[in-house]
């Protein structure tokens, strides 16, 4: 096929097609941040922000009362006890609140845990602002240690009128295997 | 034999394969860059994989013959459902279509060979290794992949065996093979058409394969990305799909189905092309609505990119998204309906005869439409909540893939086999193959609709007692369908031994197209001087 008159034409087209292939491989990975951005923007995944919000100059809307439920869940392979001190609070949008969560490591080894929040219905996640949360970082509990972990939040007064009630769930994962060794010591 | 014309002047080409410049023995097949040889390799490989994946289906049906666990362990059952799916999708259907593309596209557009013959050799010869790797993982400690062919995280990450690495590499190789095959098809069709072979004169098989090839290069890299993420999540501590590390397992499903839905059209568009070649031949009328067929194929391909989440209605999407994906999915039935209408309109008032390829083609139209209708039912969000992950889904995709894709491949093999070998296949065996397959495939898959609607979950080795009778019938149908394929095997061996009556160049009375103008069997090299298409 050395005398193929199409040789240059073919090579050009192959290069173009190979570029599509490489581009689509990249697109597969681009879907990962894209997914998070879309979920954030549209508030469809119930994922609240994983960075602390600042509480200043927030107007308190006394006319509305929002019910917030707290649910705790332990993932498979996590031996800790984990519960919320308060099951339910009724808050005014804009008002700063604190809820404490209790954890205990009943085993005789140190374990690293990571709590991951999820809000239902999803759109409420955009309006759940946490100024302080144990879920922002990993927790280390030595054998038998127990801990009261605070979580401070306020509901954004912009919360759509049709949302009067939402649930915040924390799932606690055992991340000892992948945790920082330095942190362990 | 009403189908044969009296023209037998090309008989003496029977031993063309012994031309002096073709190497003998294994080297001929290892080193070949000839599109016909590579097509044959692909087709035989696909058939061997079809029998292998079929044997796994027999294990599944034997276990499900009765309620309770009797033959295999649940973990092995899971490996069988997983590897059955992987082999049938990537080992049987896709290579069979690539084999047909290799054999037919150059002959249909008047090209001497594929545009990139050495890459063609490569793209075939890496395939057997991919499947060797995949199959060998079944014999390792912890077993092979057992997470379903869709390898949802965290089943494939947190809860899978170490052999998942082999699964990932096997899928990478299969993907590379498909991508190379697709690039070859596109370059061949773009650059090697004979003078006068304009876009809108191309046979529909060529058109549908061109569109399929674009789908392949668009989505196979996304699949490669998905398996790579599974690999790094499992072995290198990344958290693409691990919620504890900030990832999201639902995102896996989005990425997978972004590949997965175009993938199912990759497995059906060439089938549409095949049927559009066969129906006009035996109806002795030109295809009704050629242009609309081309546009319908292109619109199905484009729509395939915006419907993926209909596989995930139960993951908890916002209502607006569910409605969007529901309506987008239902929209696909419009171009598909155009196609079915055109095939029926082609047969309307045609001088129809019912040779074996035509029998398979008509069975395709009827049974694929049944699969399409159950697909429409599954597209409806509220009902999908009931049907999701039941045998209704299994019935649906086996109607579109077995009586759809695979019946079309069988139709294609019967249609072009005499052109390839120069001899008519054993018609008696072929008819036995058709009727046994037709009856058994419906005994096999039709009752799955009923047990699915009644709530029998898929991918579970046991079931509630009330499903026992139907499952017995389904298994009997399955064994019969499996055995029927052995008739096909015998027929193919006889055909490859060049047994049978010689055929003319045209083979079928109503056949039209460049491939029917060259002698039968097709000489090793064709169209070294391009034909002029008027």
Explained architecture:
Chain A has helices spanning 7-42, 181-184; strands at residues 66-74, 81-84, 88-91, 97-104, 111-120, 128-132, 139-141, 146-155, 165-174. Chain A is of the alpha+beta class. In chain A, the strands form two sheets. Chain A has a five-stranded mixed beta sheet, with no helix packed on it. Chain A has a four-stranded antiparallel beta sheet with strand order 2-4-8-6, with no helix packed on it. The radius of gyration of chain A is 24 Å and the shape is flat. Chain B is mostly helical. Chain B contains 17 helices and no strands. Chain B has helices at residues 25-31, 35-63, 74-109, 117-125, 127-136, 164-191, 204-235, 249-266, 269-283, 290-303, 319-331, 333-347, 356-379, 381-387, 391-421, 427-453, 468-496. Chain B starts with 24 loop residues before the first helix and ends in a 38-residue tail after the last helix. Residues 1-19 of chain B have low confidence and may be disordered. The chains are: A alpha+beta (185), B mainly alpha (534). Chain A binds chain B through residues 1, 6, 9-10, 13-14, 17-18, 20-25, 27-29, 31-32, 35-36, 42, 44-45, 47, 50, 75, 114, 116, 122-123, 171, 173-175, 178, and chain B through 33, 113, 115-118, 179, 183, 186-187, 190-192, 217-226, 229, 237, 240, 243-246, 248, 250-251, 254-255, 258-259, 317-318, 321.
Task: Describe the secondary structure blueprint for this structure.
The complex is a heterodimer of chains A (185) and B (534).
Chain A: H1 7-42, E1 66-74, E2 81-84, E3 88-91, E4 97-104, E5 111-120, E6 128-132, E7 139-141, E8 146-155, E9 165-174, H2 181-184
Parallel strand pairs in A: 1-9
Antiparallel strand pairs in A: 1-3, 2-4, 4-8, 5-7, 5-9, 6-8
Chain B: H1 25-31, H2 35-63, H3 74-109, H4 117-125, H5 127-136, H6 164-191, H7 204-235, H8 249-266, H9 269-283, H10 290-303, H11 319-331, H12 333-347, H13 356-379, H14 381-387, H15 391-421, H16 427-453, H17 468-496
């Amino acid at each position: 096929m050395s005398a193929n008159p199409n040789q240059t034409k073919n090579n050009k087209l192959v290069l173009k097609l190979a570029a599509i292939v490489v581009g689509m491989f990249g697109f597969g990975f681009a879907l990962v941040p894209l997914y998070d951005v879309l979920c954030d923007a549209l508030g469809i995944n119930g994922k609240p922000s994983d960075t602390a919000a600042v509480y200043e100059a927030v107007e308190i809307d006394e006319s509305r009362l929002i019910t917030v439920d707290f649910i705790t869940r332990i993932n498979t392979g996590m031996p800790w006890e984990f519960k919320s001190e308060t099951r339910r609070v009724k808050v005014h949008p804009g008002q700063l609140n604190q809820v404490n969560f209790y954890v205990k490591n009943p085993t005789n080894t140190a374990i690293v845990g990571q709590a991951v929040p999820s809000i239902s219905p999803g759109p409420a996640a955009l309006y759940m602002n946490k100024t302080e949360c144990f879920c922002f970082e990993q927790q280390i509990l030595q054998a038998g240690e127990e801990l009261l972990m605070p979580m401070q939040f306020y509901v954004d007064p912009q919360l759509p009128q049709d949302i009067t009630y939402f649930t915040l769930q924390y799932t606690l994962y055992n991340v000892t295997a992948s945790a920082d060794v330095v942190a362990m010591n | 034999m009403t189908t044969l014309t009296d023209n037998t002047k090309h008989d003496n080409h029977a031993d063309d394969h012994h031309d002096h410049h073709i190497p003998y023995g294994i080297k001929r097949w290892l080193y070949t860059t000839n599109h016909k040889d590579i097509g044959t390799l692909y087709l035989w490989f696909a058939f061997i994989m079809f029998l292998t994946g079929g044997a796994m289906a027999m294990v599944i049906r034997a276990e499900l013959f009765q309620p309770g666990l009797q033959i295999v362990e649940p973990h092995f059952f899971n490996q069988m459902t997983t590897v059955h799916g992987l082999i049938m999708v990537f080992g049987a259907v896709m290579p069979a279509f690539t084999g047909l593309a290799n054999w037919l596209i150059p002959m249909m557009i008047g090209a001497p060979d594929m545009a990139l013959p050495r890459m063609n050799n490569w793209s075939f010869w890496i395939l057997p290794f991919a499947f060797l790797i995949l199959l060998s993982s079944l014999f390792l400690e912890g077993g092979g992949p057992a997470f379903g062919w869709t390898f949802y995280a965290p089943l494939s990450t947190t809860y899978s065996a170490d052999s998942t690495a082999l699964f990932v590499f096997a899928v990478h190789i299969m993907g590379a093979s498909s991508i190379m095959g697709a690039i070859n098809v596109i370059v061949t069709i773009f650059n090697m058409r004979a003078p006068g072979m304009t876009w809108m004169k191309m046979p529909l098989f060529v058109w549908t394969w061109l569109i399929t090839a674009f789908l392949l290069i668009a989505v196979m890299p996304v699949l490669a990305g998905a398996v790579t993420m599974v690999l790094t999540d499992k072995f290198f501590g990344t958290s693409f799909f691990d919620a504890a590390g900030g990832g999201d397992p639902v995102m896996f499903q989005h990425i997978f189905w972004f590949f997965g839905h175009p993938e199912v059209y990759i497995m059906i568009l060439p089938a549409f092309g095949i049927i559009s070649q066969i129906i006009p031949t035996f109806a002795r009328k030109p295809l009704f609505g050629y242009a609309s067929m081309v546009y319908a194929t292109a619109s199905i391909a484009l729509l395939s990119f915006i419907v993926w989440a209909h596989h995930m209605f139960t993951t908890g999407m916002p209502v607006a998204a569910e409605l969007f994906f529901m309506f987008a999915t239902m929209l696909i039935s419009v171009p598909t309906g155009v196609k079915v209408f055109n095939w029926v309109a082609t047969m309307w008032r045609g001088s129809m005869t019912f040779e074996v390829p035509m029998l398979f083609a008509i069975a395709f139209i009827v049974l694929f439409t049944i699969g399409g209708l159950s697909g429409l039912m599954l597209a409806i969000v509220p009902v999908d909540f009931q049907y999701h992950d039941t045998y209704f889904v299994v019935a649906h995709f086996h109607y579109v893939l077995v009586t759809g894709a695979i019946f079309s491949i069988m139709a294609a093999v019967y249609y072009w086999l005499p052109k390839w070998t120069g001899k008519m296949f054993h018609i008696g065996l072929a008819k036995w193959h058709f009727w046994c397959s037709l009856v058994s495939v419906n005994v096999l898959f039709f009752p799955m609709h009923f047990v699915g609607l009644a709530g029998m979950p898929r991918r579970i080795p046991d079931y509630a007692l009330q499903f026992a009778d139907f499952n017995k019938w389904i298994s009997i149908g399955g064994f019969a369908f499996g055995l029927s394929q052995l008739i096909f095997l015998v027929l193919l061996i006889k055909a490859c031994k060049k047994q049978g009556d010689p055929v003319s160049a045209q083979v079928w009375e109503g056949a039209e197209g460049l491939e029917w103008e060259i002698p039968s069997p097709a000489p090793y090299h064709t169209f070294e001087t391009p034909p002029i298409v008027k």
